[in-house]
Structures are given as C-alpha cells and as structure tokens.
Specification:
By secondary structure, this protein is mainly α. It has three helices and no strands. The radius of gyration is 16 Å and the shape is elongated. The N and C termini lie far apart (49 Å).
Length: 101
C-alpha cells in the first residue's frame, strides 16, 4: 500500500508532465504570430521534456513501491529526481530566453 505522501508526489510529477505537454502542444501550434518554425522547435523540445518527466515519474513510483509497501527514498532516487527537476528548469529557461530573442 502506498503512503499518502508517495501518492501525492507521484500525482504532482504526473501533473507537471501534463502541463509541459500542453505547453509544448501550444507552442507547436503557434500561439503568437512570429517565427512559426522556432515555435515548433521549442514545442518539440518541451514535449520531449514532458516525456522525460513522465518517465522519471514512473521510474520513481516503481522504485518506491514494492511488495512491502512504500520504502524510504534512497540517495539515488533523490539524485535522479533532482537532476530531472533541475534539467526541466534549465531547458525551460533556455526555451523562454531563445523565444524572447
């Protein structure tokens, strides 16, 4: 049985993945009337990022659940999720800055 905290964390990662997916689709469709090709590239990058977040979320959820129930997070788990969070933030920053230029 999963703890409430583990379930909330898993749902938060899934919501983040869905939000990135929606933003990526909106970018590929061209929200503004400027360079459509740049928006498509940015959208594809953000959609790929959404997939990476979804994979990290599934990995984290799988690692935390087991026959004995939820277990404490290991240092490896924390490192992977931290790297995913920092990576998502950096890629988002690059996409925003590149789109603004």
């Amino acid at each position: 049985m999963r703890s409430d905290a583990a379930a909330r964390t898993s749902l938060a990662w899934q919501r983040s993945s869905l939000a990135y997916l929606v933003i990526g689709v909106a970018l590929t469709r061209g929200v503004r009337r400027i360079d459509v090709q740049a928006h498509r590239v940015a959208g594809i990058v953000v959609i790929t990022l959404a997939a990476a977040i979804a994979v990290a979320s599934a990995w984290w959820s799988h690692r935390r659940s087991g026959p004995a129930g939820a277990r404490p997070a290991r240092l490896t788990d924390i490192r992977v999720m931290t790297a995913t969070t920092v990576g998502a933030g950096l890629v988002s920053l690059v996409v925003v800055v590149a789109d603004a230029v």
